[in-house]
Amino acid sequence: MQADECQNLADVRYQIDLINNSILALLAKRQKYVERAAQLKKDISEAPAPARRAQIIEKITQEAAQLGLDTNVATAVFNSMIDAFIALEQKNILKHANT
Ligand SMILES: C=C(O[C@@H]1C=C(C(=O)O)C=C[C@H]1O)C(=O)O
């Protein structure tokens, strides 16, 4: 069902819930690669990788604009996601360092 075919909020929220499930599955898949990145890093100081982050944000800003996705929404979501994954990396690197 397209957004403009939704007749009420329940229709809209059903579709949003479906999209949430898709996003969650992709996040779980993404996490596996972030965990592998953490394994390949030797020190907790390597977790943030600001140049890589800047590259991602620049790329997704351009792609968001092409998709008609609000660029503020895109950058906020990606910055928040990357912050959370950096924290996970740091936790994993520390856990590995202590074992
Ligand atoms: C996954 C990496 O580590 C961190 C997490 C990133 C991400 O979630 O995309 C990107 C860069 C780093 O902040 C990486 O260095 O590539």
From TrEMBL:
Taxonomically, which superkingdom?
Bacteria
Chain ranges of the Chorismate mutase domain: 3-93
Which PROSITE patterns does the record match to this protein? Answer: CHORISMATE_MUT_2 (PS51168)
Record key words, sorted: Isomerase
Q: What is its EC number?
A: 5.4.99.5
Keyword match Iron: no
Biological process according to GO: chorismate metabolic process; salicylic acid biosynthetic process
An example of a GO molecular function for this protein is: chorismate mutase activity
Q: Which PANTHER family match?
A: CHORISMATE MUTASE
User: What is this protein called in UniProt?
Assistant: chorismate mutase
Q: Which organism is it from?
A: Entomomonas moraniae
